[in-house]
Design brief:
Layout lengths: L1 H17 L18 E5 L6 E5 L5 E9 L7 E11 L12 E4 L21 E6 L12 E10 L4 E3 L9 E7 L6 E6 L5 H5 L4 E6 L6 E6 L11 E6 L2 E5 L7 E3 L3 E4 L5 E5 L5 E5 L5 E2 L4 E2 L2 E5 L1
Parallel strand pairs: 1-8, 2-9
Antiparallel strand pairs: 1-3, 3-6, 4-5, 4-7, 7-9, 10-11, 10-21, 11-12, 12-13, 13-14, 15-16, 16-19, 17-18, 18-21, 19-20
Length: 298
Amino acid sequence: MKNILKLLSLSLLVGIAFSCDSDSSDDLKYAAETESGWVQFMDDSPSSITGFIEEGGIIDMDVNIVVPNTSSDLSINYDLVSVSGDDPNSLFSNSGSVIVPAGQTSYMGPGNNTGISYTYLGVISLDLADLSGATLSGPMVFDVVLTGTSSSEITAGLAGETFKVSQRIVIVSAASLAGTYSVSEPSISIGAIFGESYQVELAYDAANPLALSATNSVGFDTYFFTDTTMTLGNGGITASDAAAGPGIVVALLDYFAWDVDDVIFGDDGSGNTTISFGANTGQLVLNGIAYSLVLTKM
């Protein structure tokens, strides 16, 4: 058994030593001492990252430093580019650059077929404590865009390639979500089938800052069931109601369930907050039908 383990270890070492001759490492074509390459966000990073002010914490974004070597400290520069809502530059204390110590790169790692795991990754951080006490007009949507480095030989991305140099961020204040919302059903319209019209209310309570109570507006048909509560956290929303089933009851018809991270905060193009549920995973559980919901603030 020991001999087998030794042979396996040797094969791994040989694979690492010679992996620079294949796949994505071919893009580099650099010797181990070369100080040229690029920086990018991780290929498997999420398309969008959501954070809640009331939840706090730090949003960390790994940066892949695809460079064989650096003999001096490297500054990775980035911009916070507003997409909609409040300007992140007026709220976050970020300087627009992070310093990577000399000799620290991500060249040894699976992205270059030069290792099983990365030995080092740069990190850009957004501290939600910077937003403590801030009042947002709605979801703050922006991109963190890598713009370059302190070395002219190390670029943000690589010309002619599509390496990821922009990361979408959405910051939400639970308090800003309180209000009256119209209801639309993109997948299948229960309202159209039964000739009903829905409008709902979301209420915020500072004593329970990550929870929103959902009720039906006076004069409209029932959409949300008794005691519907939406709980924000971990980048998404979960919900429960008095029926205590495998989702929340909608329109007195069926349970609606979705993955916690299948929730998108944005606006309708006119500055009105939107919350989309279940665009990819939503389902009316008992009927086994794909279903999604969009609430638009009025």
